[in-house]
Amino acid sequence: MGIVIWIVFGALVGWVASLIMKTDAEQGALLNILVGIAGAFIGGWLMSIIGESGVGGFNIYSFLVALLGACVFIFILRILRR
């Protein structure tokens, strides 16, 4: 994926993850992008552990994998902030 696609994909994933985890009011657009991109890496890593493929393009499967990773990332950040 090109850098622009990563940014758009990260923004969408980060925004949806922040809505699910109820942190939308705390996050701005830049943080949503960073959370989404980090979520794609974390989700890909988690899926590789169980033998599945990670993020491979701009599709529903990749979106769900990145969303899983972003929610895990937000959860870990919440634990570390306490």
Give a short summary of the structure.
This protein is an all-alpha fold and about 80 residues long. It has helices spanning about 5-20, 30-50, 60-80.
Please count the helical segments.
Answer: 3
Q: Strand-and-helix sequence, N→C? A: HHH
Number of domains: 1
State the shape: globular
- Low-pLDDT segments: none
Helix content: over 70%
Mean pLDDT: 88
Distance between the amino and carboxyl termini: 35 Å
- The fraction of residues in strands falls at under 5%
Number of E-state strands:
0
Whole-number radius of gyration?
A: 12 Å
* Largest sheet geometry: none
Structural class: mainly alpha
Explain how this protein is built.
The protein has 82 residues and is mainly α. The protein has one domain. 74% of the residues lie in helices and 0% in strands. The protein is built from three helices and no strands. The protein has helices spanning 3-20, 29-49, 60-81. Helix 1 (3-20) crosses helix 2 and helix 2 (29-49) packs across helix 3 (60-81). The longest helix has 22 residues, at 60-81. The termini are far apart.
